[in-house]
Design goal:
Mean pLDDT: 86
Shape: globular
Strand content: 25-35%
Number of helices: 5
Distance between the termini: 58 Å
Radius of gyration: 25 Å
Number of domains: 4
Helix content: under 10%
Structural class: mainly beta
Number of strands: 34
Low-confidence stretches: 1-5, 7-11, 19-26
Length: 478
């Protein structure tokens, strides 16, 4: 392996200093020969002009720093996530490139990585494989009869591994309008289109299309993703109006794998919040999504553990910023409005839907608009957490959440993800408190039961929250 001579090293240091500290007159630099760089380059390394094969070096290449990454979602070993300035370092480090030399399953393998602001992204995989076929998890679990209750059991969210395509049948939307929301619904006839409503980061979703074209209720949506993780909401529109939408949770997390779930009181829990991209402490990515009680569509959690009312940036398919809407809930049955406006937060000092129907439960079974993926659901009631509120060892303030490790039992880490305020839709008290919904409703129409914990309190018995409030969800196995 070649090394830089002292002279070349001196030149390199000199020019790097010139780039960053000299006057703006020096804007483009070549290292290796006294020639101008490419028109598009601020800095170019070459020892010859381009030959007929476009080669500019015959003596060596640029060697990236070799490092041992610790976690795909942190800047370790360079920065401690507990550092008070960590969030700033994450933002300032966007574009940092390294060569990782260690293997750390399941995410980290040797290769070139760059930091995108939230995670290390593998630029070049050493394992070249054929493209994966689209995932079709609903095959055989629905039919073409719009009046069949079986079609109401199709999920409203999907777990999808990064870089993999997914195919979703649109039947759930058609069947729900026909059987539940409006049996006389005539607007189900018309031109069907599909659209990415929002993605949590740029270049998360590659494409969204009708797979095989418009076939009405028998249509399917195909979603292709890039090799990054995040959250997105994809909708179908009839004559330009959203008629159904799905949460796409893009992650390598598989809740069926050993060690990816927790068990207590005969109930199996996911080991993370719905929509979470991380399970460690003191990390904003553990919070996942927020849900108004009885709605299937997520609202992103806060982007800060220290400051209230900070919205996460959302993007459309062209990577343009899009925003949530926050309006007062109209009078009357608001469920159809909520389906047609999945990016609208309905504020209210009580119930956004103006109904006491249990949208997240159907006679003890998973509700039609339950936000959890297939095989999982919102907890039925508070009893799933019973016995965990006494003698718990936890450090909510220091670690940004609640560690449930009573008597050697580990129910995982519950982040203090805060909530969205019922009357404003704004994020509040992230890093200080946690609210986790159940599908259990109270005697009045304005509240539902939830798990609550704060710096000095864990409350399972009587804690209620306004249904217009948006809380975290920890899915349990059906």
């Amino acid at each position: 392996m070649r090394t830089l001579t002292r002279k070349i090293l001196f030149v390199l240091v000199y020019f790097l200093i010139a780039i960053f500290y000299s006057t703006p007159l020096i804007s483009q630099v070549t290292i290796g020969m006294g020639a101008a760089p490419s028109k598009t380059g601020l800095l170019q390394l070459k020892d010859q002009e381009s030959d007929e094969d476009n080669i500019t070096s015959t003596t060596g290449g640029f060697i990236l720093p070799r490092v041992a990454l610790k976690d795909i979602y942190t800047l370790e070993p360079f920065v401690d996530p507990a550092d008070n300035e960590y969030q700033n370092y994450k933002r300032e480090s966007v574009g940092t490139m390294v060569y990782n030399v260690v293997v750390l399953p399941p995410d980290i393998v040797p290769g070139i990585y760059f930091w995108d602001g939230e995670r290390w992204v593998n630029v070049i995989s050493t394992n070249v494989t054929e493209p994966d076929p689209p995932q079709t998890p609903d095959d055989g679990l629905y039919n073409s009869n719009i009046d069949d209750p079986l079609n109401l059991t199709l999920p409203n969210s999907y777990l999808l591994q990064q870089g993999h395509p997914l195919i979703i049948p649109v039947m759930k939307g058609y069947a729900t309008w026909k059987q539940v929301l409006d049996p006389e619904e005539s607007d189900l006839v018309g031109k069907l289109t599909t659209k990415l409503l929002w993605q949590s980061k740029q270049n998360l979703i590659k494409s969204v299309e009708l797979y095989g074209g418009d076939k009405g209720k028998d249509s399917k949506v195909k979603i292709e993703t890039y090799d990054v993780d995040g959250n997105a909401v994809v909708g179908i529109l009839i004559n330009g109006v959203v008629k159904w939408s799905w949460h796409i949770w893009i992650t390598n997390y598989d809740p069926e794998e050993e060690g990816a779930y927790r068990e207590h009181n005969g109930v199996t829990f996911m080991d993370r919040n719905l929509g979470a991209l991380y399970t460690g402490k003191n990390n904003i990515l553990t919070g996942g999504m927020n849900y108004q009680w009885g709605r299937k569509d997520p609202f992103p959690g806060t982007s800060s553990l220290e400051v209230n009312d900070v919205e996460r940036k959302l993007y459309d398919i062209e990577n343009n910023e899009v925003s949530l809407e926050k309006i007062a809930a109209p009078s009357g049955d608001n469920r159809p409005n909520s389906v047609e406006n999945p990016m609208t937060y309905y504020t209210a000092n009580g119930n956004w839907a103006n109904s006491n129907i249990n949208f997240w439960d159907r006679g003890g079974e998973k509700g039609i608009v339950d936000p959890c993926p297939r095989g999982w659901r919102v907890p039925k009631n508070r009893s799933v957490w019973s016995g965990l509120s006494e003698d718990l060892k936890y450090r909510a303030v220091e670690e940004g959440g609640l560690n449930w490790d009573k008597d050697g039992y580990d129910n995982g880490f519950y982040p203090s993800a805060g909530f969205r305020e019922a009357t404003s839709g704004n994020s509040k008290i992230s890093g200080k408190v946690g609210y986790y919904w159940t599908s259990e409703i109270t005697d009045n129409s304005t509240n539902a039961y939830c798990l609550f914990f704060g710096v000095h309190e864990i409350n399972l018995r009587d804690r209620r929250a306004l249904k217009a409030q948006a809380n975290s969800v920890r899915c349990v196995k059906e």
